[in-house]
Amino acid sequence: MPRSLLFASSIALSLTMIAPGCSSSPKQESTGEYIDSSAVTAEVKADLLAAPGLKSMQISVETYKGVVQLSGFVDSYDAKRHAGSIAMAVDGVKSVRNDLVVR
């Protein structure tokens, strides 16, 4: 086998083994998705902080593949609904899982 063909084959094999490591799976985000999720989380948190009447320090925000999960405590059902609508209004949010507890 000529040396150049052997070299090209080894490069092709290496690339096919590396490429799947950059893709996502149902249980794990790719690097790009992780960065997008982090940006969405930061924007949701900022919008919740800016919202008058919400005790946003008691609200936790997590994002996974565009799905935002809100957890923590609020004082009323209206505050829970308001927090959910704020999160849903952020670009990149596909859905909101509102697990806030009213106490």
Name its key features.
103 residues; alpha+beta; Histidine-containing Protein, Chain: A
Order of helices and strands: HHEEHE
Please give the domain count.
Answer: 1
Mean pLDDT metric: 86
How do the strands of the widest beta sheet line up side by side? 1-2-3
The percent range for strand residues is 15-25%
Write down the CATH topology.
Answer: Histidine-containing Protein, Chain: A
End-to-end span in angstroms?
74 Å
Instruction: State the CATH architecture.
Output: 2-Layer Sandwich
Number of strands: 3
| Rg over alpha carbons | 21 Å
Give the % helix: 40-55%
- Helix/sheet category: alpha+beta
- CATH top level label: Alpha Beta
Q: Residue ranges: pLDDT <50 for 5 or more in a row?
A: none
Total count of helical runs of at least 4 residues: 3
**Biggest sheet record:** 3 strands, mixed
Could you give a quick summary of the protein structure above?
Helix content is 47%, strand content 21%. The chain is built from 3 helices and 3 strands; from the N terminus they run ααββαβ. The protein has helices at residues 3-18, 31-50, 77-88; strands at 59-64, 67-74, 95-102.
